[in-house]
Amino acid sequence: MTTTARRRRYFALRASYGLIALFVIYAAADATNLVYGGSVAAMSYREAANSASSVFIAFAWLQLVAMMLVTPAMAVGIIATERERRTIEYLFVSDLTNAEIVIGKTLARLLLILKLLLVGLPIVLLLRMMGGIPANLVSASFLIAGSTAVLFTAASVCISVWSPRARDAILRIYLLLGAVFVLPLPLASALPSIARSSVWSDLLQAALHYLVEFNPVITLGRCMTSRSMLGAGVDMAQILWFSAAYVLVSALLAAAAALAVRRVHLREASKGEKSDRNWMSRLAPSRRRPALQRWPMVWKEAFAGGARTRLGVAGFLAAACIVATLVGLTGYQWIALGNASWERKSFLGFLVFMRTFAGIGVLLLLTVRAAGLCTYEKERDTWISLLSTPLSGREVMGGKLLGNLYFARWGLALSAALALFGVTIEPAVVIYVAVDLAVLTLLAVFVSGVGLWYSLNSETTLRAIGLATLTSTVVGGGYLLCCCPIAVSSSAGDESMLVGLAPCMPFLLALPCISEFDAPSGREANSVYGAFVLGIAAYGVASAMLVTTLFARFEQIRGGGDGGESPLKDTSPALPAA
């Protein structure tokens, strides 16, 4: 706790979170003030209370989303990083027990996360001076966010125990959380109309019901149901049961991690290279590796055993559930499709949403994977050996970039498979699907470049992944959370607002297929397609600049030239043949 609390990045994280919270509050207050005349002095007591309640709602959602996104990234590497750096053996030979190691690290990281949660407490207390914010609603929002942080921390530590690398641990925890907290929402509403009544379907519906009931997003949304009587829908007994259930599950996960940490590491260390041939590798179809020819780095990143992403049992099952849900729901909508034109149009809109959701997920996975490609070499003490090779910056960083894009083949295949449902209805969709796949490939190059840049300039995998994910999220659409309230409250025209969508990745992924069945017209078409072309051009230029900068930066680190030929190349004349 002493070493982690003094790191500057955690101070910067808390300061950044506080600034973002103040900015969101300012934007929400500015938008609310326009409804009541645009002046705080002209408001009545009731209007001031309603304005404060609207601002608090925006802050409460920001707080919960921040806890759900930041907590896994901060906690998932506390054991995996020790294993990756080979320092966990020093902890095992000390006088510390397994429980002291795991619980101590968990509590230390949880205190840092709760400090981040307490940043917003003074802001809320100041807002309560305006009235309209009941004390029970404030308590409920902090209990929901705090218990969510506790559960996510314990789950991240448990996943970290079974993960040999921090990069794999982050992929596993986000896939698992997505399968547990996101998938039950559409499945719970669609399953009664899909499955027939049976014992298994009833059990599945009951499980989905409990997952939805204990979902933090659903629980917080119920507290915000009444705007006129904010806080009237808060049932503190239910909130306390929610928090107690989360704390109980967290304790069980922490106990499981403490019991397994030594056994798991010793078992994996004793297996050596045989651990790569697990049951999932045996189930996968055997493939023949291509010969090592002109591109050794591409071969290493795409086909070598150490370059593979190890999802583990939990990650594999979570990914399988996500893919099965996407394909299954789309297939069910396709089977139940009628002949009416509005039904076809509605299905194509549903298909655009599913493909956009899948594309964003693929881009996030690519960002996380790319951010660990160079730091993994540093933490495994192979980075110096890589710098000492005669390979140029173009060959090394280009190979890592192409290897990361090779990992995206499954995401592209999933997007193409979902598009086949639309092609069977409207064959002309294939043209727009081709454009959409090209856009997805371009965005994949960009996020891979961002991840490689932070990986090249960072010392640890967790830091590189955190910075790369934050950058890709903010640039790819997260900026809208701050800009939309200002744009709504300002006098900016519709064309200016549409141009602001140019960097938004969901907009760029969805527009090609939307144009097939709901194409804009008139001045709106000029703005929409202009924003699309501007966004594609901007990402194309940014990707080219990132790739060029990566080549030059690698040579700068090694002390060479501009990323072309390596200074270690053997330029001496060849010996004459005997």
Report on the structure:
The protein is mainly α. The protein folds into 2 domains: 1-174 and 213-268; 337-563, no CATH class. Helix content is 76%, strand content 0%. The chain has helices at 2-5, 8-35, 45-75, 77-84, 88-92, 98-118, 121-127, 135-161, 166-181, 184-194, 199-213, 216-223, 236-271, 279-283, 296-303, 312-335, 341-370, 373-379, 383-387, 393-407, 409-425, 429-456, 461-478, 480-489, 494-499, 505-517, 522-558. It is globular, with a radius of gyration of 26 Å.
Strand tally, please? Answer: 0
Gyration radius (Cα, Å) is 26 Å
Write down the secondary-structure element order. HHHHHHHHHHHHHHHHHHHHHHHHHHH
Helix content range: over 70%
Coarse morphology:
globular
Helical/strand content category = mainly alpha
- Please indicate the count of domains: 2
Unreliable stretches, pLDDT < 50, 5 or more residues?
A: 561-578
Terminal-residue CA separation: 67 Å
- Biggest sheet record: none
| Mean pLDDT figure | 79
Classify the beta-strand content into a percent band.
under 5%
Number of helical segments with 4 or more residues = 27
Give me the secondary-structure topology.
Elements: H1 2-5, H2 8-35, H3 45-75, H4 77-84, H5 88-92, H6 98-118, H7 121-127, H8 135-161, H9 166-181, H10 184-194, H11 199-213, H12 216-223, H13 236-271, H14 279-283, H15 296-303, H16 312-335, H17 341-370, H18 373-379, H19 383-387, H20 393-407, H21 409-425, H22 429-456, H23 461-478, H24 480-489, H25 494-499, H26 505-517, H27 522-558
